[in-house]
Amino acid sequence: MKGGAFFENIRMSLRSIAANAVRSFLTALGVMIGTGAVIAMLALGAGAQKSVEASLQSLGSNLLLVYSGQPRGGSLVRRSTTNIVPTLSAEDLEAVRNLGPHLVELAAPESSSGGQAKFAAVNMPVTIVGTGIRYPEIRNVHPILGSFFTEQEADSRKTSVVIGHQVYQELFGGAGDPVGQKIRLNGLGYRVAGVMEPKGSSVTDSSVFIPISTFQRYVSGNPKYALINVRAASAGIMRQAQGAIEKEILRLHRLPNLDAADFYVANQLDLLDTLQGVAGTFTLLLGGIAAISLLVGGIGIMNIMLVSVTERTREIGVRMALGAKSGDIIAQFMTEAIILSVAGGLIGIALGFGASWAFSRFGGLASQVTPLSVALSFGFSVLIGLFFGGYPAYIASRMDPIQALRYE
Amino acid sequence: MIGVTNLSRHYRMGPTTVKALDSVTFGIQSGEFVSIVGPSGSGKTTLMNILGCLDSPTGGSYILAGEETASLTSDKRAEIRGRRIGFVFQNFNLLPRENSLENVELPMIYQGIPSRVRKERARDMLRKVGLEGRERHVPSELSGGQRQRVAIARALAGDPAIILADEPTGALDTRTGGEIMELFHSLNRDGTTLILVTHDPLIARRARRVIQIQDGKILADVPSGEWTP
Fold first, then answer.
1. How far apart are CA A345 and CA A378, in angstroms?
2. CATH number, residue B84
3. B59 pairs with which residues across the strands?
């Protein structure tokens, strides 16, 4: 094809598309809906993946949880440590900390127990959590009022307490500054040091946090921990850190291997993998269904192009008589098909963005259009134009000019 | 300009062979105005298709402007059509959505002539056929005679060796048909080689030479003054 003919093809295609405006629109509609659906569905998938990541990050980043007890389905979703028989010692915690900053950034012990909190005349059941001063950083939950207890308070078995947000709401009506107020836990008086931010998880929000030394002394009477919270130095070394922790505690507990262990390590990555796998499957499924609708749109283009080729048999004959080669005819009809599918694709992208916006605005769904999905679906719609425009164009190019000129 | 030697076109229809053209030989010089005449089924349409490089002969030789065209690929034939032949059809065959100028440009597009040159030449051709000022009209805004003039301008636009006109007055009334014949004569006087294919002896006679075809063979090949149908 010559350079000048290229623009001629575009000009003539646009004219032919404009001459059958309604039909052209309906033809492109299939590709529009298909492209829009692919983008919207992939946006939903990406949104789901994002919210999975976000909710995991809200547990704390690079989180490893060393649980007491027999290994069981490594869940990171905060399990109550209330009913666990603690097997982890201060020695274990020290050993974990001593693995070094290249593996373990922070570590905090944790034990918990059910209890009653009382302020003035209000009573409520709470989970009393004994932990260390690093807990807020590791678990990514911070005080909004006052402060978490300090190292000094933790070491001296001070009766300081940081209360969860729901506890704050029930005992103090969610208003005013309770810092410095005295509440009673299981009958013992504690000074409120701070209030935690709401996490939306009922376990955290209905907990009260006291220094682990205080917990051991006044609540459990047990020197062992139910759990050690660990923040690994980076996402890349989480498995390495997990291995090192397992090895170290096995040694301290004089155990031969993990099968016999009285503890287990839950790794944030494992959960992330699982959840992302689910989100990925979900994305694939939605995207696949949407891709089928794009395919159907392509078949629509082929259908109309075949009709168009038949209708324009005479024109094809005239062009051939005037010197058009088969390549010229192919180029002309392909140009038309590609213009239809590209226009459909572009409008479809806009539709996809709109649908994604509507999902999050009105459907309350996490939805995020990814550049990849835009590129993918647009590229796909161009390919569909090429592929489904190709056959009708080929049919046109194979016409016998004598027959075509005689066509009524 | 044209050399046709023992040209044959046979069609196989089951067990029988139909000889649409049976060993035809003639020559046409540059600047001639020849009509090919014969009743329907005589083989004149087959001959015209071969002369127009729309079809290939099954035997013999057809030399157009020094080039043997008898056995070429369809793309090569398309190229020769674009470069050497200008078609004028009975029903004009203009593209309905394109205006006069764009219709005349069409053969030049396929020759790869740049847009500016195309437009200028198309304008010249429209002027030559007396349609100055009608460049922007689409075919439906033109009369039959005007449409045929656009078609003739289009045929001239590619600067062909021959103009091949198939019943060019067939769809026109007598007066308009006469005007078109006048235009052909004036083009011929300027040096254009014309071949006019018709079944109508009155039209055929208006060329300067008549080749009469019957049953795939040449019945007569004489100056039109000496021809009696």
1. 6
2. 3.40.50.300
3. B8
Phi, psi of B25 (to 5 degrees): -135, 125
CA angle A83-A86-A92, nearest 5°? 150
Query: pLDDT exceeding 70 applies to what percent of chain A?
Result: 95
Kindly report which listed range (A142-156, B2-16, B33-47, B135-149) carries the lowest average pLDDT score.
A142-156
Whether B171 contacts B144, CB under 8 Å: yes
The pLDDT score that the predictor gives to residue A294 is 85
DSSP string, A198-228: P-S-HHHHTEEEEEHHHIIIIII--SSBSEE
Cβ distance A5 to B112 less than 8 Å, yes or no, reads: yes
Inter-chain contact A321–B93, Cβ cutoff 8 Å?
yes
In the prediction, which pLDDT does A320 show? Answer: 95
Domain hosting B102: range is: 30-51+73-226
Q: What residues in A contact B56, CB-CB < 8 Å?
A: none
In this predicted model, what pLDDT tens digit does every residue of B94-128 receive, in sequence order?
A: 999 999 999 999 999 999 899 999 999 999 999 99
Residue A5: strand, helix, or coil: helix
**Do the chains contact at A402 and B49, CB–CB below 8 Å?**
yes
CB contact under 8 A, A321 and B112: no
Residue B154 lies in a domain: yes
Q: For tokens 């004219």, what's the residue?
A: A15
Report CB contact under 8 Å: B89, A16: no
Is A5 within 8 Å of B110 when comparing Cβ atoms?
Answer: yes
Contacts of A5 in chain B (CB under 8 A): 109-110, 112
Q: Which of A322, A330, A335, A408 to mutate to test the interface with B (most CBs of B within 10 A)?
A: A322
Check CB contact under 8 Å for B158 and A402. no
- Does B49 contact A322 at a Cβ distance shorter than 8 Å? no
Residue A326 in this model has a pLDDT that exceeds 90: yes
The 10s digit of each residue's pLDDT in B16-27 is: 999 999 999 999
Q: Hey, which residues does A129 pair with through a beta bridge? A: A112, A209
- Amino acid B58 reads T
| Among candidates B87, B94, B109 on the partner chain, residue whose Cβ is nearest the Cβ of A4 | B109
Q: A8–B87: do the CB atoms touch at under 8 Å? A: no
The pLDDT mean for chain B works out to 93
What residues of chain A have any CB closer than 8 angstroms to a CB in chain B? 2-5, 7-8, 12, 15-16, 19, 314-315, 317-328, 401-402, 405
Q: Measured between alpha carbons, how far is B61 from B84 in angstroms, rounded to an integer? A: 17
Query: Any idea where the domains of chain A sit in the sequence?
Result: 3-54+274-406, 63-233
Q: Per-residue DSSP letters for A41-63? A: HHHHHHHHHHHHHHHHHTT-TTE
Q: Could you give the ipTM of this predicted complex?
A: 0.94
Which chain A residues are Cβ-neighbours of B158 within 8 angstroms? 322-323
If one counts the domains in chain B, the total is 1
Q: Closest Cα partner for B89 from A223, A156, A321?
A: A321
What is residue A1's predicted lDDT score, i.e. its pLDDT?
A: 45
Number of CB pairs < 8 Å for A and B?
Answer: 70
pLDDT at A85: 81
Residues from chain A that touch B94, judged by Cβ atoms under 8 A, are 318
What was the pLDDT predicted at B95? 93
Indicate the pLDDT class of residue A72, thresholds 50, 70 and 90.
low
A141: pLDDT strictly greater than 70: yes
Q: How confident is the model at residue A164 (pLDDT cuts 50, 70, 90)?
A: very high
